[in-house]
Amino acid sequence: GSQFIGTVENCAVLLKQIIDAPEGIEAAARAVAQRHRAERKSIPGFGQHLHKPDDPRAAKLMAIGRAHPEFEGKYLQAIAALSAEVDAAYGKHITINATGAVGTLLGELAIPPTLMRGFAVISRAAGLVAHIAEEQRVPTGRFIWDLIDHAVPYRGEGDGHNKAQPQG
Fold first, then answer.
1. With CB atoms counted within 10 Å of each terminal CB, which end of the chain scores lower, N or C?
2. What keywords appear on the UniProt entry (predicted)?
3. What is the pTM of this model?
4. Considering the domain boundaries, does residue 126 fall inside one?
5. How is 5-21 classified by DSSP, letter by letter?
6. Residue 164 predicted with pLDDT over 60
7. Percent of the chain residues past pLDDT 90, beyond the cut
8. Residue 46 maps to which CATH number?
9. What crossing angle do the helices spanning 74-90 and 6-20 adopt, rounded to 10°?
10. How many domains does the chain divide into?
11. CA nearest 103: which of 147, 164, 61, 141?
12. Residue 158 falls inside a structural domain
């Protein structure tokens, strides 16, 4: 969806609009930040509830991007300008998050924003493989199943797994 893995695409689209704006990157970034603030809308690629003041994943990704001179740098410039303007508009620092950094770098690689969600899906698939490997080393699936089966009473019709009576 657009709230999780879709934010990579949404951030890149926003950065492309800033890059292409006739008034220039800084003015366009300011307008975007102020508009989102006025409309009370979140800005794709910004904010992270666990990592404050800065998302270390994003910081590392941005450092990798800046270290590659073959990048044109427009997306990096746009995210930096937007970050400064977001902080100014909100009166506090709001970190670039990992999806913002990924959208920036994929933009630098000239990946069309419409394909970026696919890269996010690929990364999720790699994470699932890691979970499979972990489950093979330290099986927890049966424990979790039994815990849920005991803690959450079956409330449907028919022969459910959990014979506990509904609370209430």
1. C
2. Lyase
3. 0.76
4. yes
5. THHHHHHHHHHHHHHH-
6. no
7. 66
8. 1.10.230.10
9. 100
10. 1
11. 61
12. no
